[in-house]
Input
Amino acid sequence: MGVVFKIIKKLLELFYGYPIYLVSFLIPRDPKKIVVGSHTPFNDNSKYFFILSQAYLPEYEIIWITQSKEVEERIKNLGLSVYRKNRLKGLYHTLTAKFYIYSFHLIDINFWTSGGSIKFNLWHGIPLKDIAFAIKSGPSAKLYNEKSILSRIIRPQIFVRPDFMLTTSDEMSGYFAHAFRIDKKQCLKYGMPRCDILSWSKSQVKEFIHTYESDEMLKLVTNLTTYEKVFIYMPTWRENVDFLDEAGFDFVKLNQTMQDENKLFIFKLHPFSKLKNIKLDEIDAFSNLMVLDGNMDVYPILPFTDCLISDYSSIYYDYLLCENKEIYLYPYDHSEYVLESRDLAFDYNESMPGLHIENFGHLLNMVKCGKNSFSKEQIKIREKYFKEEKGRSVNQLCQFLKGMSQ
Output
């Protein structure tokens, strides 16, 4: 019954959607109205553009579009403009806004109302795995099959080329241009809005949290300052439900090590991660281990950590923008991951240099004696992938939008 309902819902969407899409090209659009959305509820580059742009574009109407009642209430409580995607006011604003700003595809806002708008794709990080039309293998390759008429009909938003992409360097511009089938000139090397916060002082970050985040997050970052050192483990998403077991984590030993040296080890797993044999609340029960909600926005927390432990995640590159930190890589399943996952966009060892942790015993030793400093190779990668001045992504994008509105 669930499958039948989804099919009927999709058919109705297509039946009503295509006429609306054709009409959307005929409706005049306000050059000082911007609609913003994200594939995650209220997160990522879109969130930071939406919040920070308010100060740079006071004369513009900047509106968040969502399908979530919870997100709608949260943004209303912040005193900012928000409307539901399929309600009348939401449809009105998406039909009349000149600029669409999103971080995945037009589905983040509303594809059916997007005709005639200027589209900015902020994406969501520097990729290690191939993305969009650069994908040539795996399940996602079927979605981005340009020869599939059925895919074009059912998922038209995937095939719409953005007018502009936000990137971080010449090399990234070349890759994104290829992956999204656009000209390299359409890539704006302004950096990523979510990374602006990483250049701020801790007091500035706390003020941001006080204004836009929860009291719980403010208490959390205040608590982090009481530890000698804070590690945050952020592995990329895996379908494997036993990946923490395979990584060899011994939570008793890890907690004892943290406790002995007044350190904290945070687990921040991907929102879609599922575990079979390990319950996250059992990990969180240890005195010096902490589990963060997978859906939590981690960027205000990163400045209050000291060391990132990851594997193939784009968080690696963002963390390079922090000061006086260190990064360890724990690619315990590298061979299997490369075989079973999508093709890698870049050579792993060259594009993600750093200390590779071989097993849990090695990890335990490093959290005991590591030092807070990036390697020379990691600094080179930072200089290669981030050409622009840090902390100015939203400012530069806003100036560009002003120029287009004149």
Q: What stands out?
A: The first helix runs from residue 2 to 24. The chain has a mean pLDDT of 91.
